[in-house]
Amino acid sequence: MRKYPEGIQELYTAGGELYGVMISPELWSELSSVVVEHLTKTGKMAVRNELKEPMADWELLQEYWDFKYPPNAEVCCEVCGAKTDDWVHDSPRKFTLLAANLGGLARFCCCNCHAIVTKRHFKDCIKTECKACELEEETS
After folding, report:
1. pLDDT bracket for residue 138 (50, 70, 90)
2. What is the sign, positive or negative, of the torsion defined by CA atoms of 82, 85, 87, 89?
3. Measuring CA to CA, which of 26, 57, 70, 125 is 20 to 30 A from 44?
4. Which three-class secondary structure string do you get for the chain?
């Protein structure tokens, strides 16, 4: 016999402890506004802090650019489809710079879906990787 109706599934750790609850997309569409309102009222709504972009690191990478192709500011999110030809000059920003270094790595956060886009600049090419954001568990 089910403890909850269709669309609600309890998740347990290997040790048998309740880890979380999964609900169907249909049920979430009905409940999301109530849940967000409750979390906001109780002060439990996590607010994503605005990150300070390491622009000095990006500028240093540009200054010492020694790859066989010109630098570009194109970024594309494979998760949600957001893209830009120039992330630096977008207003509002579509991507936030998380990291850059002289080795050619540039990492961005998609402002739409929070996926992480990594551009690895090699001598002859750019390799791009995009990963959906995994929610981090907050510690109190």
Report:
1. very low
2. negative
3. 26
4. CCCCCCCEEEEECCCCCEEEEEECHHHHHHHHHHHHHHHHHCCCCCCCCCCCCCHHHHHHHHHCCCCCCCCCECEECCCCCCEECEHHHCCCCCEEEEEECCCCEEEEEECCCCCEEEEEECCCCEEEEEECCCCCCCCC
pLDDT per residue as tens digits for the range 73-128: 999 999 999 999 999 998 888 999 999 998 899 999 998 888 999 999 998 899 99
| Alpha carbon distance 120, 129 (integer Å) | 8
Quote the pTM value: 0.60
